[in-house]
Specification:
It is built from 12 helices and 6 strands. It has a 6-stranded parallel beta sheet with strand order 2-1-3-4-5-6, with helices on both faces. The two termini are 14 Å apart.
């Protein structure tokens, strides 16, 4: 599999991180980075009370600039896909290509975020506490088979952020994708000539609310067989191969 000259930056979704060694190792010799968003991991102590998706986009833009490598291939999963759209729209000088891994296009994609965004803080914490009580059941609910690695991954993803971050991020993605300007930003990216790749798990692909015009105008779309929304947990090798395949099509 050809390795791109530019770094790849992975932007995680509502829970967890994509910095797991097994996920990163699947990209072979490619230069790969998986930073934590605001409120996650090493940034979990940040104030998220007024968090916006553009704040997250600026955070990723700062990370890319800090690499000192020029443009990168930006790959965003789920909520991270929406963050990546805003990075590409507002900081195009930093982005060689954009890959959306079942990234939020509309409020239909952000349906669970929409539910979390309006719940009281205590109820959000209670929901997440329930997940933490049985991490295997939580990740298995997304179609991930349980083994030693996926069980540990589920525990890590659930522990990577406080409930306050989950609610703040959910609120931010609903606010951003609920605006007509969000889809306009995707149109602008496509018109700019920046490559846009769409990747989904085959089991979850039909539920991804991608507008027909985006499917028609994107550079390529791939569905990863035998996987769902958490394809990187089900099959890291297939996930990495799909990304690298897209990047080889430029």
């Amino acid at each position: 599999m050809p390795v791109p000259d530019e770094p790849i930056v992975l932007v995680h979704g509502l829970f967890g991180s994509l910095s797991d060694p097994e996920i990163l190792a699947a990209f072979g010799n490619a230069e790969i980075h998986a930073p934590d968003l605001i409120g996650y991991g090493r940034n979990r102590a940040a104030d998220t009370s007024k968090l916006s998706l553009l704040d997250q986009a600026r955070h990723i833009a700062d990370f890319i600039s800090g690499l000192g490598k020029g443009k990168v291939h930006l790959v965003g999963h789920s909520v991270g896909g929406a963050v990546s759209v805003l990075v590409a729209r507002h900081f195009p000088e930093l982005v060689e290509s954009l890959t959306s891994i079942e990234g939020n296009f509309t409020l239909k994609d952000a349906f669970w975020s929409g539910q979390i965004a309006v719940k009281p803080d205590g109820e959000v914490a209670e929901i997440i506490c329930g997940y933490e009580a049985d991490p295997d059941a939580w990740i298995a609910g997304a179609g991930v088979q349980i083994n030693e690695w996926t069980s540990a991954l589920a525990r890590h993803w659930l522990a990577n952020q406080p409930p306050s971050t989950i609610k703040a991020q959910a609120r931010a993605v609903v606010a951003a994708t609920g605006e007509a300007a969000y889809l306009d930003a995707i149109r602008d990216i496509l018109r700019s000539g920046m490559p846009l790749y769409l990747i989904a798990g085959r089991r979850s692909a039909e539920g991804w609310d991608v507008p027909d015009w985006a499917n028609s105008l994107c550079t390529a779309r791939l569905n990863i067989r035998d996987t769902g929304h958490l394809m990187m947990a089900e099959n890291p090798a297939a996930f990495a191969a799909a990304v690298l395949t897209c990047l080889s099509l430029r």
